Amino acid sequence: KLHSDLDKGVGTVKYTLSGDGAGTVFTIDETTGDIHAIRSLDREEKPFYTLRAQAVDVDTKKPLEPESEFIIKVQDINDNEPRFLDGPYVASVPEMSPVGAYVLQVKATDADDPTYGNSARVVYSILQGQPYFSIDPKTGVIRTALPNMDREVKEQYQVLIQAKDMGGQLGGLAGTTTVNITLTDVNDNPPRFPKSIFHLKVPESSHVGSAIGRIRAVDPDFGKNAEIEYNIVPGDGGNLFDITTDENTQEGVIKLKKPLDFETKRAYTFKVEASNLHLDHRFHSVGPFKDTATVKINVLDMDEPPVFSKPIYTMEVYEDTPVGTIIGAVTAQDLDAGSSSVRYFIDWKNDVDSYFTIDATEGTIATNELLDRESTAQYNFSIIASKVSNPLLTSKVNVIINVLDVNEFPPEISVPYETSVCENAKPGQVIQIITAADKDLSPAGQRFSFKLSPEASNKPNFTVHDYRNNTAGIETRRNGYSRRQQELYFLPIVIEDSSYPVQSSTNTLTIRVCRCDSDGTIQSCNVEAIFLPVGLSTGALVAILLCIVILLVIVVLYVALRRQKKKDTLMTSKEDIRDNVIHYDDEGGGEEDTQAFDIGALRNPKVIEDNKIRRDIKPDTLRFPRHRPPAEDNTDIRDFINQRLKENDADPSAPPYDSLATYAYEGNGSTAESLSSIDSLTTEADQDYDYLSDWGPRFKILADMFGEESYNPDKVT
């Protein structure tokens, strides 16, 4: 209620209200000043309101007192229950934890005023989850309430937590949440085999490294705590087997380390130990975390292929051994209880295998063809053995046969087969060192001996000096040699080897006599040099030959120029024997029109007039004709025309326009002689043209012209 001291109760004062919630939440009686709440209030929404009030004169509307400010505070009541804002909760705790092990802390929030009464004072309790867990009423910390809770017995727990305000008293509001608690695994259980003996049956044909069986120990733990390692306890048969762990199934996989043989041993017994990899020291007192089981393996008999006595066979045979000679044998046995017979045959792959045969029953290998070590020094092929009782069961072995060398080739002299000796050689001078080569496979210490053949021992020209180290020297026995007397000497040399049987050959060494200087340097070994004057050097010979070649070239050039000049005299310059084709539209004047072209271009080349400048339509620069000698009487006209044609084509100064080159010379030797009257020795009156009609249709017009028209000497020009 608001009241002003100036208010006399006569209705002259009016009260006004402004500020937070004025008119919406609060209202005022203008006459009495009473303030009323016009709707319910919520402290959690707005805990206080700030308002301003003023007393105003009703008549003058003027304030009677200054405006005053006051606060309306909303008093809290317990109208909000506690709430778990983070729920529901998920927590975990290791199994076998002691009592009081911390699990989780929960927290509930109450929106009521914690400073007024017990409306916001919360107390925690467990509604569901006892007796496994407990909670602190004030802090909300959840702890284990039972010892040795086993994950393998129960893994998941759901705990219902309640938070109640008013300190947990009657009438307080409460809220709940759920906590899901999981027991995590610890390695508290050792692995255990479900049975003490495992029986396995394994075929003796099992391959080394293959898995022959599986055993498994059970560990109720989870994850890495359930990882198991298997080991074979040293003992009977343990060295033939190995065991590994399958990471996916944690089974022990038994593998074969060595091949099994039913005929040798039919059963094996050994022990396998299973243990955990990750141990927890807190549970050592429980006992050893490992277990042992016995594994018995029975070997099953299988029908196996024959087995060779050796993994590979190596044999030796001399080349040229007679066909059918036995050089060795292979042996294979059937180790099965039935002991079947074995058959042998060669695995044919190429033609090399045909050099040998094998006895199908005994396994002996013999030659089938003559062998040549120089052609093939080693043979490599396969022998297959099969059981008679089951031919499909086969085994294979490699056979290597080395062909041994037989001394069948005589030694021969190595290159060179030709050497030289100076004319001024002295007796005892070594002119050549020779060596020998043998196609046979020479063993260590092979020696060759050199000597002259008997027929050459009596000749006093050369001798052979054997150095006893597979080389020999050719020595002179004369004081000087003459090429004029004998240019070549043929020295037969006998070479023997030291193998058995001894092989020898006679080799001929060609010795050429050469001219040398005083130091022994060869200057010439040519035959032509023998006939040259003494004292003429090689440089002088080259100079003479060069002069001869130059003279021959000069003579050839002179003759060629002479022939060229004779051909050029057939006609004059090509400007004189051709004329341009003049294009015009009017009709020509016939034979009497002599102004259109130079009639002199049609004259016989033998009668040459002075050269004239061409009357072609050409560029400003005048081009003067070239002089050519007249052609010979017997020069063929075709060669003449071709020559002129090539000259015109190759002439770079020829005008770049069309022109007509006229060649009036017909040549000599024609049966009709010259058809032109120009420069003829006789007149038309002396000519009889009746023969033109005998030349055929092509000359009919010409025959009509000269046959009918009478001759007029005035028309001749």
TrEMBL record:
Q: Which domain of life is it from?
A: Eukaryota
* Topology of the protein relative to the lipid bilayer: Single-pass type I membrane protein
Matching InterPro entries, A to Z? Cadherin, Cadherin-like_dom, Cadherin-like_sf, Cadherin_CS, Cadherin_Y-type_LIR, Catenin-bd_sf
What Gene Ontology molecular function terms does this protein carry? beta-catenin binding; cadherin binding; calcium ion binding
Cited SMART domains = CA
Keywords (A to Z) from UniProt? Calcium, Cell adhesion, Cell membrane, Cleavage on pair of basic residues, Glycoprotein, Membrane, Metal-binding, Phosphoprotein, Repeat, Signal, Transmembrane, Transmembrane helix
Domain named Cadherin: residues: 4-84, 85-193, 194-308, 309-413, 413-531
Q: What does this protein do?
A: Cadherins are calcium-dependent cell adhesion proteins. They preferentially interact with themselves in a homophilic manner in connecting cells; cadherins may thus contribute to the sorting of heterogeneous cell types.
Record GO biological process: adherens junction organization; calcium-dependent cell-cell adhesion via plasma membrane cell adhesion molecules; cell migration; cell morphogenesis; cell-cell adhesion mediated by cadherin; cell-cell junction assembly; homophilic cell adhesion via plasma membrane adhesion molecules
| Name under which the protein is recorded | Cadherin-12
Tell me the CDD domains matching this sequence: Cadherin_repeat (cd11304)
Q: Name one GO cellular component term.
A: adherens junction
- Entry's transmembrane regions: 530-561
**Could you confirm whether the keyword Transmembrane helix appears in this record?**
yes
Q: Which PROSITE patterns match?
A: CADHERIN_1, CADHERIN_2
Where is this protein found? Answer: Cell membrane
